[in-house]
Amino acid sequence: MRYRYTKYAPNLIDGLDIDELTAKLSDLLLASGFGDGMGGPFDGVDRTLQALHDAILEALFNGGVLRPDLFEQLFGKTAGGGEQTPQQQLEQLEELVQQIIDRMKESGYITTAPDLDQARAERAQRGAPGEGEPGHVTFEVTDKALDFLGYRALRDLLGSVGHSSAGRHDTRDLATGIEASGAPKAYEFGDTLNLDATATILNTVRRTGGAGDVDYEDLMVAQGEYQSSCATVLMLDCSHSMILYGEDRFTPAKRVAMALSHLIRTQFPGDTLHAVLFHDSAEEIPLRELGRARVGPYYTNTREGLRLARRILERQRQDMRQIVMITDGKPSALTQPDGRIYKNPAGLDPFVIRETLAEVSSCAKAGILINTFMLARDYDLVAFVRRVTAMCRGKAYFTTPFTLGDYVLMDYMDKKTRSVH
């Protein structure tokens, strides 16, 4: 049997890192409702193939994904040495974008309609050809993509603060654990019987001159670093202000939450993390749904968020229990005993503040720490957060959407170097 060999023609898609490109598309894949045409909180998450097409082009040319050699292959001379026409360049670029979308589907990052070509043909036959265009065909982000984006966010954040890898929950306390890292100590009732054989035998020799048996008083145990466990509730403000004023604050907050979730799941399996969204009211959401969360109703019911977080943490048995609250607005709503929502967005309503601080006091009595990360520096918000900090021995951080991740992760890991009594 004869074989015919032809010149290898490399495919542009083979020279692209799909994982890197997917990470560049995170703003679209994690969209929270910012920039919609109507300015409403529930519309405007544009997950159409046309939006994906445009985002891919942006990543290729402005995101550093398209290497110079691939750019030359795409827009340079033809295989015969001639110049490509603009039409040929456009066709080749469109083909590349379509291949990228297909590769993202094959990699399990997105899902689309089962058969787009058939759907377009059927819509065209019904006399509505516009509905078959990419701009009207939507896609869904998969759990695999969200998990990958959480990993990438964690890697990027840890790299930015100088950590080559995530550490463990180390504290200054020493305990009789498995991994010895401190000087041996005399055994006391209640210690883990992690015997230091060398020190124990040496004590026996000193006491008996080598002629006696090991006695209780000779026992020495190795000390290991005490690693605390922590239960955390991440409270995300998803009121309308998080996407107002020309800035998307909610998507970066989600990205940080996903990174923290990935860190705890992979590096600190003894820790727990729960996510609570608060707006007009508050609700807990599964961690796997963090990437799909969007801005909610308009007001900020901080009291309800704290109450839900406290109830969750009171069921936990970790050494440390804390609330990490990310917000950009002062409390402006309250859930009344009959279930109605009392709302007052103008200034600090004394009734709202009094009830919210009462809940902060309940958290403090339960031994729950509250750390607040503020994405705004409104005078009223600063005054409220200072009172919260003073009541619960927590900390307040003034940050921006760009530095939020550094602050949250550093604060989380720094706590592990402090003594737990």
Overall description:
The protein has 13 helices and twelve strands. Helix 12 links the parallel strand 11 and strand 12 (about 395-400). The strands form four sheets. The chain has a six-stranded mixed β-sheet, sandwiched between helices. Strands 1-2 form a two-stranded antiparallel ribbon. A two-stranded antiparallel ribbon has the order 3-4. The protein is α/β, with parallel strands linked by helices. The protein has helices at about 20-25, 25-30, 50-60, 70-75, 85-105, 115-125, 145-160, 195-210, 250-265, 300-315, 350-365, 380-390, 405-415, and strands at about 110, 140, 170-185, 220-225, 230-235, 270-280, 280-285, 320-325, 335, 340-345, 370-375, 395-400. It has three domains: about 10-140, no CATH class; about 170-225, no CATH class; about 230-415, Rossmann fold (3-Layer(aba) Sandwich). It is flat and about 95 Å long.
